[in-house]
Amino acid sequence: LQERFEIDEFEKLKRDLIKYNCALAEVLTQLNNINSYFNAYWEANPIEHIKSRIKAPESIAGKLKKKGLPVTAESAEAALKDIAGVRIICSYAKNIYEIVEILRKQHNFKIVKEKDYISEAKASGYRSYHLILEVDLGELFDNQVCPVELQIRTSAMDFWATLEHKVRYKYGGDMPVHLSEELQNCAQQIHALDERMYLIHELVDLINEGEDEND
Ligand code: 0O2
């Protein structure tokens, strides 16, 4: 029970979560617009799908506890940047960088932090591109800004991360060495597969371009 919020802190957090919902809605509108733009103007839409979530109060409490911070609404707001989270799943790693460049040009939010775990994977084998976006909530919320975490990864990276997260959660952060080694091994194979699939995709594009020129 210690890990949970006291009742009045929980009520404060529930009220604060409205801000995160508004910020998330703003980001999702923009991402849906980008998705429609890709559908209309790009030959193939690089976005496969977009998922979003607001972190559950239990997970917020657990993360604060893990960081050794007080389990209060105030410390959640100060310390956690991933209360509102969005994930974009795309086809190839190259698409991730294309999407990031488009995001830089948006005016509804600004990018305040970036971590590229695509070009250099984490020790676990994890690959993904992380951004913290800051959304201005406007006068209704006294011009406060609210963070939204955005993770962009390929389907293959997502497949791996979902399983690894499940295994890590099962062992409460104390994963047996043989499992973490096997997961690192799978991460390397998935990375190699991602690259080979991309080469096939590029090759087919080149063949198509050649055929178009000959028409
Ligand atoms: P959950 O349960 O997904 O929310 P910070 O979040 O900034 O305090 P950190 O860990 O340096 O600290 O941030 P980082 O590296 O950007 O990671 C944030 C999130 O990325 C994690 O959130 C995970 O969702 C994901 N992530 C990072 N590393 C791994 C990994 O090795 N495996 C998997 N499956 N996911 C990872 P949470 O809150 O840790 O977890």
UniProtKB/TrEMBL annotation:
SUPFAM superfamilies: Nucleotidyltransferase
Any one of the GO BP annotations: guanosine tetraphosphate biosynthetic process
Keywords of the record: Kinase, Transferase
InterPro entries for the chain: GTP_Pyrophosphokinase (IPR052366), NT_sf (IPR043519), RelA_SpoT (IPR007685)
Entry superkingdom: Bacteria
Biochemical pathway: Purine metabolism; ppGpp biosynthesis; ppGpp from GTP: step 1/2
Gene Ontology molecular function: any one: kinase activity
Annotated RelA/SpoT domain residues: 52-175
Name of the featured protein: GTP pyrophosphokinase
Lineage of the species this protein comes from: Bacteria, Bacillati, Bacillota, Bacilli, Lactobacillales
